[in-house]
Specification:
315 residues, mainly beta, 1 helix, elongated, single chain, six-stranded antiparallel sheet, seven-stranded antiparallel sheet
């Protein structure tokens, strides 16, 4: 492998991340109402989330009206979405619980959830379409589960699909429409929960490999970003952490009061101080490839210690 001069890692890590980062944007709405209903001994009731509700978070709950004993029904629906430089995701949860021995059923119908996903510049991502079904007893029914990528009338995932389906797509500044339909319920005592996940992850040829275990409790997290050839580095510490980057290794014992030996693996080609909740984007352009970058952190307070480390391989 060709190894550039150490200045290359400094240029790569300090200059290129100053360029505008590519971002994803996700808008979630329900063009038709979401309906939660119950029937206990012939007494029916329902609530609904009005059509065209939107926002990164929505939730709705329903309890069968009194009398609640000896049998009652609870139904829940919620979604949580986010989008940033790392990608985008929607988590859609539906749940029905039937309590007691009497005849009862509950349903959650979300027949029309619309996602509009776009990026600040054209880029390729993998869409992961997944579901998880958890039932405590027979009597649950996932009647409809369909996802239409492109909103063109064809379904990339249905109730007959395996747990996860991956669809490669290109995002642009024009929204990609993704339509989700899910109708579920149960009859008789027990719980049924259905969780639907739609996740957009960057397509990347970078390999992120564990390289060393740290001696402290702080963890380094390394994830691919939407920026071509980019990764995001962050620490889960409430205190500042020094990020050490090297295009080679130079194992060094770090003086620490901890009983465990604290080994710093990367060569000291670049050192950056990251504040709490701050992340850093490293971009490896084609001109610097092939390249292997080692990354690790050093906690400075309350005691000096090292984090776990990774090797980032850019072929």
């Amino acid at each position: 492998m060709h190894v550039p001069h150490a200045n290359a890692i400094v240029l790569c890590s300090l200059v290129l991340p100053l360029l505008p980062a590519q971002q994803a944007t996700l808008i979630v709405s329900n063009p038709s109402p979401v309906v939660l209903s119950s029937d206990v001994g012939g007494q029916s009731a329902a609530v609904s989330l009005p059509a065209n509700s939107t926002g990164p978070v929505q939730s709705l709950s329903h309890n069968s009206p009194p009398p609640v004993l000896p049998t009652s029904v609870r139904a829940d629906f919620d979604w949580t979405s986010e989008a940033n430089r790392l990608g985008a995701s929607l988590v859609l949860r539906q749940a029905v619980s039937v309590y007691g021995p009497g005849p009862a059923n509950g349903h959650v119908a979300a027949p029309d959830i619309l996602l509009q996903l776009q990026a600040s510049a054209p880029l390729f991502v993998n869409l992961e379409l997944a579901r998880a079904v958890d039932a405590t007893a027979p009597g649950g029914n996932l009647a409809v589960w369909r996802i239409d990528v492109g909103d063109d009338g064809s379904f990339e995932a249905t109730e007959a699909s395996p747990g996860t389906v991956t669809v490669p797509v290109q995002l642009t500044t024009q929204p990609l429409r993704i339509r989700v339909a899910s109708v579920m319920g149960r009859t008789g005592g027990g719980n049924l929960e259905v969780v639907t996940r739609v996740t957009a992850r960057p397509q990347t040829n970078l390999s992120i490999l564990p390289a060393i275990t740290g001696c402290g409790s702080t963890r380094l997290h390394v994830l691919p970003t939407l920026q071509s050839g980019g990764i995001d580095l962050s620490f889960d510490s409430l205190q500042p952490v020094a990020a050490v980057l090297g295009i080679g290794t130079n194992p060094t014992l770090v003086p620490s009061p901890l009983s465990t030996a604290c080994l710093l693996l990367p060569r000291l080609d670049a050192v950056l101080l990251l504040l709490p909740s701050q992340s850093f984007q490293l971009v490896v352009p084609p001109a610097l490839r092939p390249l292997m970058v080692f990354a690790q952190g050093v906690d400075l307070v309350p005691v000096v210690s090292t984090t776990n480390g990774f090797a980032i391989v850019a072929p």
